[in-house]
Each structure stands twice: as structure tokens, then as C-alpha cells.
Amino acid sequence: MTDSPALSEATLDALDRASGRLASASLAAMEEQFPWFQRMPADQRASVLLIAQGGVAGFAAWMRDRSEALRLTTDAFRTAPRELSRWISLRQTVELVRAALSVFEQEVPPLAADDAERAVLTEAVLRYGKEVAFTSAMSYASAAETRGAWDARLEALVVDGIVRGDAEEALLSRAAALGWDPGAEATVLVGNPPSDDQPTVVYEVRSRAARASRAALLSVQGSRLVVVLAGATETPDDAEVLRRMADAFGAGPVVAGPTVASLAEAHRSSAEALSGLRAVVGWPAAPRPVRSADLLPERALAGDPEAEWQLVDGIARPLEEAGGAVLETVQTYLESGGVLENCARLLFVHPNTVRYRLRKATELTGRNPIDPRDALVLRIALCVGRLARARGLW
């Protein structure tokens, strides 16, 4: 703004005297125009009045010293949104500012002693309005940035707690504060981060989760990225979400733990996913992402007792309980190199009998001995079962 003619002392005095009336008139306009403002507690409306009074006083001080920047004018409003943002939105704040400026436009110019001063005051009010609106938006942006940083720290605490195995109420309440549905199913995915830049990592994960309409929590822990994804993953359509989320990770394997009923049980999914990530190197051809349950042989060989127990409980025990014929047929089939005719000849049975028993084994364990990968799982499971029984664990 170029230098404008100075205001007379009489006009400046009139502006000073009118500051209280202008603030009260602004508050009355807000109450009249906005029902939601009327419902605010009295102490909060009183805070708005003080802010308005400070703004008017700053405006009057600036009009006395035109060499002073608009800092005097906008200081009162600079801190206002940080307080008001606790109970009103940015849109509502803009509405309040607009109502106050409307009062200023009507009440301030008539305080001038002549037309020249009226033009000066009119121009000053317009500049004032622009500065206040800009300052309000910047303050809300700063508040949002602060909240975002706090949310990121809170999110990291939640994910770290899940990885450590915490299941206390504090973890659940923190997750709820981040918008997580406490009753939602949860699946933990682990892998390498796509970048060393934290905002890039957050964008990659958030954008893919948003496109899948899923909530997600994430944390970068050194050289690994941990993502907790909400919702089911069992159906083919749901499993596709895991494949899309895997694209948010960097190069290398991505392991998904089992889907658990709620966030309170997510530590189990995390433990299995991390166990799988340590063992996945043993299966170079593993899909991406790979389920931790599909890495049971590698996890067992790496010394994971949970994987050993799952192999015993899900494969070795059902085969033994099915009777000697099924177990013997599976063992013989695997030892004979997976050749059905050789297995039948060694057992002195018809090949169709072998086929029937293998189908029975598949129904019991979910693993088909004819499939090379499933054959490896069965072989390791039977070996682990024998070792567990020898140690008296089964």
C-alpha cells in the first residue's frame, strides 16, 4: 500500500473511542447471523469478544503509525484460530471474520472528518480484511501441521506398542484417537520402506489405503516399514487389497501376518509377520506379499516355536489322528519322489487308493501333497512332529 494522507487527530481519537463499540457490534452481528455461535459457552464467546477488541485496538494503533507493519493489526487474530480451532472449524472462523469486517466497513469510514479521510479508512479496512483472512488461514494451517506431527508420533507409539506385544487399554485408546475402529479386523504387513523420506512413505501407504477404503496405521522402524491394515483379507477381493498395499513398500519381500479379530490381538499378527520376514529369505520364489502362514517351514527351520506348533497342530496331528493308512501313504508318497505309481507299488495298493488317501490328507491339512510347495510343507511338518514327540512336547 502506498503512503496515504495522514488522519487528523480528531479522527484517530474517534477511532480509539469507538474500539469497544466496534467489538461489541461485531459480536452482536455474529450472534445474530450464526445460531451455532449463540450455542457456544459464554466464556468462549467472551474470548471472541476480547480477540475482536484486540483487533480493533491494533487497527487503531496502526492507523496512528503508518510506518508500522500490519503486525499490530493482526497480532490479536494470529493467535485466535489456535484457540478457536479447539471448538470451531476454519470455515466457521472465516464466517466470524467476515461478520466482523462487515461491521468495520459500515462503522469505521463514517468516523472520518472528511471525504479524503473516509477514502483512507475505507482502503485501510479492505487491506485489514485481507490480512486478517490470510493470517487466520495460516494459523489454521500451522495448527493442522502441529496436529499432524502429533498424530504421527501417536501413530508411531501405537504401532510400536503392537510390535512389542502391548495390549493395554492405553494402546486402544490412542488408536481410537487416530480414528481407528476398535472392533475392526487387523492385519500387519512388514517389509522395506519405499524411501528414506518420511512424507513419501506416508503418502504411498495412505493413498493406497484410501483407494481401498481402508484405515491404516504405519511406522518406519529403522530399515523396515510396519503397516496395520483394517478389514478382512480372506476373500479373493479382500486379498487383492493386500497386493495393492504391497506396492506401497520398497523392493524386497513383503510379509502379511494373519488377520485377527481386533487391534487388541494385532500383536499376534505382528509377531508372525516379523517372523516371516526373518525367514522369507529361505524361499526365494515367495509371492509378494506372502502370508506368514505360507512360510511355516522356513520359520520353523529358523527356530520359531509358534511355527513349529502350527505345523504340528495343523498338519502332523490331523494326519496321525486320521489313521495309519493316510499318514503312511503321505510319508511314502513324499519319500518316493512324488511319483504316484511308485508309491502304490511300495504300499501294495491300487493307484486310485493312493489318490483317495492323498485327497483325504488334503482335506485334513489344506495341503496337497501333489503340489511341490505343499509337499515341502508336509515334509517339514511331519519331521517337526516327530521331533516334538521325541522331546515329549506332543
Automatic annotation (TrEMBL):
Gene3D superfamilies: PucR C-terminal helix-turn-helix domain. It comes from Labedaea rhizosphaerae. Belongs to the CdaR family. Transmembrane segments: none annotated. GO terms for molecular function: DNA binding. InterPro entries: CdaR-like_regulators, CdaR_GGDEF, PucR_C-HTH_dom, PucR_C-HTH_sf. It comes from the Bacteria. Residues 165-279 form the CdaR GGDEF-like domain. The keyword DNA-binding applies. Residues 327-382 form the PucR C-terminal helix-turn-helix domain. This is DNA-binding PucR family transcriptional regulator. The keyword Coiled coil does not apply. Keywords: DNA-binding.
